[in-house]
Amino acid sequence: MKIIILKRDKLGDLLLTTPLLQTIKQLYPKAKLAVVAPNSSAWILKEATFLDQVYAYPQPKTFNFKSVVSIFIQFFIFLKIRHESYDLAIAAGGEYSHRAIKRLLWIGAKHTVSFVPPNKYIKEITYPVSEPNKNMHESLRMLKLLSPIVKSKKKLHSPDIWFVPQKHWLLMAESFLLKNQLKSKRFIVFGLGARREKKQASKEQIIETALYAYKKYQLKTILVWTPGDKNNKNYPGDDALAYDILKSAPKEILPLRASLELTIGVIWHAKKSIFPDSGLMHFAAASPGGVVGLFADTKVSPNPNQWGPLGHNSNYIEAKESIKELGNNFLHKEINRF
Question: Is the pTM of this model over 0.85?
Fold first, then answer.
């Protein structure tokens, strides 16, 4: 049997799809399992031993000559997939998406699975699935897509999120640590998220956390952020916030303004990471040290019940309105659990 999973979303969304992929491989170990996803996120699955093939297609954001070329490349990739004659294609997502279904049908599989609203009929979808409870975690919602093809009555349990960084990323991180006289597991990573202000710790909270971690456990803090200006529409950065913190930062805080590859490598060596709800939070959740995710104002923002970090060393803190309202000592209990 040949099974292919379509995933259109960003980094964190694809990471949360890895429990579904692992479950399919456990249920059908002899099946050929493939994923088709945008170039921007497909690289996450490069080291995945539970996959047999990954198709990556370009996804242009602006219309120009390069975007026209990308459209042709995308066309030929889906033509190649159609030639493979997949038995089953699944639109992996936590909710109904007409765009996902459109691409799903490009695959030309014998059978198709997707979330479809009860009041909507799409004849090309072989197995329409009703959307589960909105408050259910995204990873568990996607497992519901297997209900038409799993005959067992046993409840499916979601595995932990999966990711393995490439070896040279870890070597880059080791060089950075050596240069700064740091050892693996002897530091914490504190991440910024300026575009998520309500979920962002204040300068005072970050400095107090760093001082406490070092005074009590001799753990230094590496401050990481996305390079660039926060007004960049495509890739908002946190330079302004980071430089403001570093102006008054004690020696216990070390800056890391780096590529995603080096940042992930450093996270993998950390005792623990602390991140606002973001793609990096989910990467950190898959790391050996795990993560403390920061959530706030969940009446209007993503709820941790649905988007919280997965992983045996990961948990989250939720504030009613803003992380800043929790005071400067709000992470002390978490640090004591490290």
Answer: yes
Could you tell me the residue range of the domain that residue 52 belongs to?
2-146
Residue 264's pLDDT band (cuts 50, 70, 90)? very high
What distance in Å separates the CA atoms of residue 136 and residue 131, rounded to the nearest whole number?
Answer: 10
Domain at 237, CATH number = 3.40.50.2000
For 137-153, what is the mean pLDDT? 89
Identity at 132, one-letter amino acid code: P
String of DSSP letters for 31-97: SEEEEEEEHHHHGGGTT-TT-SEEEEE---SS-SHHHHHHHHHHHHHHHHHHHT--SEEEE-SSS--
pLDDT at 63: 62
Contact 111, 148 (CB under 8 A): no
Q: Where are the beta strands (DSSP E) in the chain?
A: 2-6, 32-38, 53-57, 88-91, 111-115, 127-129, 187-191, 220-225, 253-257, 272-276, 291-296, 315-319
Which of 98, 117, 146 marks a domain boundary?
146
